[in-house]
Design a protein that fits this description.
Helices cover about 65% and strands about 5% of the residues. By secondary structure, the protein is mainly alpha-helical. It has one domain (about 1-285). The protein has a 4-stranded mixed beta sheet with strand order 1-2-4-3, with helices on both faces.
Length: about 290
């Protein structure tokens, strides 16, 4: 279990470093095409500004977009009790708890750090899981909080968006260049076009790879927290077998949920926000073997 946690942390650091080098490379190529080094500077500044905005307000935006409402303790006393006990065990402040009125079983955590964290669960999750399974899911989400996964994923989502915006801007700006300018630097323009097309795809692949690694890490950390890996494994099995899609899910928030909220779609593992549930369950079962 500890080996898996250490391995995922090392791989995630590598992927984030690759992401930062990649965005600088994209800015450098575009600055060469236009012969203006300030394009790279502007790209970096824009990335930082976008990251700061998302850092402070992404949790509120995510909860609003998901239709989540605060879970009042008298009505959801059992849920509050589970979250509080696991938070104490994990050494974390008790996060705010939200409910999503949707019959599909799922959950996610959001917030920039443990002091500003929130956990949201669907009504379907509360109805379809038993206590041990629910504890496994909550432990998984608290692990995301404790591992600062939400901060990490917020930064990567912003970087993907910035690369997409820069690429789109570059492609559109080519139409406004003088014909002589376009003919004068054909090689660099061609390189720029290739980068503009491939950069958003490559950036998205890096983002998804990071997301999948953090899910494996949260599974391991959650199992360590409850000391009962089968609880989370059974919960994932039930969630996977439930065919009802999550109505409030969207592409921007899909990576936050404990399982892919889009059911019934065969997506390549390279383009999936989550690792295969069968693999996650297998790893969890091996922890008790």
């Amino acid at each position: 279990m500890y080996n898996q946690i250490d391995s995922n942390k090392r791989r995630t650091v590598f992927l984030i470093g690759l992401f930062l080098v990649f965005i600088i490379a994209v800015g450098w190529v575009f600055s060469k095409v236009y012969g203006n080094p300030f394009i790279l500077v502007i790209a970096v500044i824009f990335s930082v500004v976008q990251a700061l905005i998302s850092y402070y307000y992404s949790d509120k935006i995510t909860l609003l977009a998901s239709g989540a409402s605060e879970a009042k303790e008298p009505q959801f006393h059992g849920l509050h009790h589970i979250v509080e006990n696991l938070s104490i065990t994990a050494g974390l402040p008790k996060p705010k708890i939200y409910i999503i009125n949707d019959s599909a079983p799922n959950a996610f955590a959001t917030g920039r750090d443990p002091k500003n964290a929130s956990v949201a669960v669907t009504t379907g999750l509360l109805e379809k899981l038993d206590k041990k399974e629910l504890e496994g899911v909550i432990a998984h989400e608290l692990s995301h909080v404790g591992n600062y996964d939400i901060r990490l994923m917020t930064i990567t989502v912003v970087l993907v968006g910035v690369i997409a915006l820069i690429s789109d801007w570059f492609m559109r700006s080519l139409w406004f260049r003088d014909r002589d300018d376009r003919n004068g630097g054909n090689i660099m323009i061609l390189v720029g076009i290739v980068f503009a097309i491939l950069a958003p795809i490559a950036a998205t692949l890096i983002q998804l790879a990071i997301s999948r690694k953090r899910e494996y890490l949260a599974d391991a950390s959650g199992a360590l927290l409850t000391r009962y890996p089968d609880g989370l494994a059974d919960a994932l099995d039930k969630i996977a077998k439930d065919k009802e899609p999550l109505e409030v899910a969207n592409r921007a928030t899909a990576h936050l949920y404990i399982a892919n909220p889009f059911k019934g779609k065969n997506i390549s593992n390279y383009f999936s926000t989550h690792p295969p549930i069968k693999d996650r369950i297998k790893r969890l079962r091996e922890m008790t073997a």
